[in-house]
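Subject: Protein entry, chain in single-letter code together with its fold tokens

Area: Proteins and the way their chains fold up in space.

Attached in line: The record itself begins immediately under this heading.
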Amino acid sequence: MEEAKRIVTDIKNGQVKPIYFLMGDEPYYIDKITDFVASNVLTEAERGFNQMVVYGKDTSIDEIVSHAKRYPMMAEHQVVIVKEAQHLSRTIENLASYAENPQPTTILVVGYKYKKIDKRKKLYKTVQKTGVIFESKKLYENQVADWIRRVLSGKGYRIAPKASALLVEFLGTDLSKINNEIEKLFLVVDKQQEITSQLIEQHIGISKDFNNFELKKAIGERDVLKATRIVNYFGENPKDNPFVVTVTLLHNFFAQLLQYHGLNDRSPKSVAKVLGINPYFVNEYAVASNNYPMKRVSTIISELRSLDLKGKGVGSQNMNQQELLKELLTAIF
């Protein structure tokens, strides 16, 4: 996120603010900015007396303000970091009076994860004037693969589109979890070497053959044999391949395929933009559209909705995952 980079760059250049209020649904950037301040504003010698970390569960706004009003010892600044500040949501507005006149020698970092303060109230407006408000927004699933590519590119690595899609499918939109897995790859992959799905399978433990990504591709190609093999594998490993994830992904795929059928402009760039996918995967929709006419797609979407309910125990009479998966293939093929 460009705003997070700008905040870090300003701090590197010595342009520090007395308050950094970091909030929002995506904890990754909140942690990154907090860790950067903790590791870079003070020297190692200065941190012993001038850096303090407190947790929202174990403190109060009054205590935070008391810490923030102290003067640094033998240093230009002191740093006060409040982690998990969302636990102070009932009293967080009380920080507004300190934010009006913050201690200029203190850098107060507030990590307010998974929540946002009310932008209409005094605290938000005051911190905007005297410090920095940063909102860390959750990425949509169709944005995460591009985020992976940009992160890797920034470190001099390349990744195949299929490999990044594989990471998103198995790790979801949790950027911290994805970043942890990427860090593993840095230890074993040379910068001259493209990160492929084979490397991900080898070093992260994600199967390149038996996953929802390959199931979707097999279904799009009407490859019944391959789809059946994958489904059987899912049935034997239900904990690693939850039915609800499979049926949701396939429902989204056919909903996008329905959109594809209605497009006048089917150029890769246009399709990718409308469907919110990487241009690399546009051909999969072209192939699937030949195998599934629009009317059939509509019927499949309806069947998948019913199966989703059954997977959640509605009218399924306790069907196990293998039975649900077999019914899923029957509904599609």
The first strand starts at residue 19 and ends at 24.
